[in-house]
Amino acid sequence: MTTSPEQKTVQTRTNAHAVVAVHSAKGGVGKSTVSVNLAVGLAQRGLRVGLLDADIHGPSATLLLGNADWPDPGPEPNTIHPLKAHGIHFISMGNIANKQTPLIWRGAMVHNMLSQFYSQVLWPELDILLIDMPPGTGDALLTTAQADPPSGVIVVSTPQELSLLDTVRGVRAFRDLNVPILGFVENMSFLSCTGCGYEDDLFGKGAAEAVAEQLGFPFLGALPIDSVICDSGDAGVPFVLARSASASVQAMNAIVDKV
Ligand code: ADP
User: Fold this and answer.
1) Which of 64, 12, 90 is closest to 232 using CA atoms?
2) Is 27 known to sit in a ligand binding site?
3) pLDDT tens sequence across 157-173
4) Where is ATP bound in this sequence (predicted)?
5) In 81-224, which ranges are E strands?
6) Per the annotation, does 170 bind a ligand?
7) Looking at this predicted complex, what is its ipTM?
8) Is pTM, for the whole model, over 0.90?
9) Rounded distance from Cα 216 to ligand 1 centre (Å)
10) How far is CA 18 from the centre of its chain?
């Protein structure tokens, strides 16, 4: 993989001991849901956590974290403070762009905006900065690799063949950038009937785990399809904070413990 000439080295103010990207090759597989819950789960365990929502075209952190405020300006011109929610620091295009404005931007504009998340946001000292990557293997991947290269990537996939095909492509892109794969999360692994408890392997439970094993990467865990997960996302309260001992909450906490 090569960088294009207009993509110069990005100045960065990130102040994190570890930078970890969360990636999925396809959109809609739950990458942002996993990113946000991982971030909040790690903060609950006492770590200083930041979340940089690198999905400039389709930002999700604003809604999933329930904080749509504008960022406060910093003391120097062209600087802003990250926002806070549920014990983490975050920045997202969703807090900057007007909700009504479609984000039809060229690659170079995405690169510039994303670079500013690194260079103009006054991140505090962090133990871990999670990068919620946009789907696919486009410009954002190169920008993040140039700005503050992740020390590893967590891959999110559903067990469906269509998602897994692209997942393998994404894994190759990170390998080309020398970013190690920390592990796979299988999301929407199965559907459990809330009435009778019957487990429906809708997308083929275990297929993402099998691919992780084939490729020699750790498997961090599986999350079911659960209305608690989508409802909590819509409510802006990460489900990892739920006091219930439901299978989803337990599974998410087990994933956080492995990271
Ligand atoms: P991505 O970041 O991969 O585009 P999101 O995290 O935005 O995906 O999730 C897409 C939608 O699916 C959201 O509405 C989210 O609430 C929902 N969702 C994600 N994971 C689950 C799950 N395990 N069970 C139920 N709904 C889920």
Assistant:
1) 64
2) yes
3) 999 888 888 888 889 98
4) 25-32
5) 83-85, 88-91, 126-132, 152-157, 181-186, 191-192, 199-200, 219-222
6) no
7) 0.99
8) yes
9) 26
10) 15
How many CB atoms lie under 10 A from the CB of residue 130? Answer: 30
Q: What is the pLDDT of residues 8-18, one digit of tens each?
A: 467 788 889 99
**Burial of 57 per CB tally in 10 Å (0-12, 13-18, 19+):** middle
> Does residue 235's CB lie within 6 angstroms of at least one atom of ligand 1?
no
The helices-and-strands tally (H runs, E runs) of the chain is: 8, 10
Question: How many angstroms separate the CA atoms of 112 and 10, rounded?
Answer: 9
Which amino acid residue places its CA nearest to atom 6 of ligand 1?
Answer: 30
Domain ranges for the chain: 19-258
Tokens 């399809």 correspond to what residue? 225
Q: Which CATH class is domain 19-258?
A: alpha beta
